[in-house]
Amino acid sequence: MYQDEFILGYERLLSNGWALGVKTLYRDLKSHIDDVSINHAVDALGYAHTGDAYGYVLANLGSDITIPYDRYGTGELKMTTFPAGLLSRP
């Protein structure tokens, strides 16, 4: 996750402890992360799951993710890529 940010401000002290100020902020979010459910991707790719829970990962929703996953229910984790198109579905 990263962003570009620029802040410009000015403040002036007035009489009796009063202050007056202005500030402008520019923020450009370049990439973000969110918790993503991999349920649809697991089903679409035909991988095994345990119980009702598949899993959630922190990822950029617009990108493929590669994580260790027990594809066949054997207890052996393999690096598995889940395509972004399968993660973007509700």
Descriptive notes:
With about 90 residues, the protein is mainly beta. About 10% of the residues lie in helices and about 50% in strands. It has two helices and six strands. The chain has a two-stranded antiparallel sheet. Strands 3-4 form a two-stranded antiparallel ribbon. A two-stranded antiparallel ribbon has the order 5-6. The mean pLDDT is about 85.
Summarize it.
12% of the residues lie in helices and 48% in strands. The chain has helices spanning 39-45, 84-87; strands at residues 2-13, 19-31, 34-37, 56-59, 65-69, 78-82.
* Gross morphology: rod-shaped
Radius of gyration: 23 Å
Q: What is the spatial order of strands in the main beta sheet?
A: 1-2
In N-to-C order, the SSE pattern is EEEHEEEH
**Helix vs. strand class:** mainly beta
Beta strands, count? 6
Distance N terminus to C terminus?
Answer: 22 Å
How many helices? 2
Helix content: 10-25%
What does the average pLDDT come to? 85
Q: Which stretches are poorly predicted, pLDDT < 50 over at least 5 residues?
A: none
Percent strand:
over 45%
The largest β sheet comes out as:
2 strands, antiparallel
Topology:
Blueprint: E1 2-13, E2 19-31, E3 34-37, H1 39-45, E4 56-59, E5 65-69, E6 78-82, H2 84-87
Antiparallel strand pairs: 1-2, 3-4, 5-6
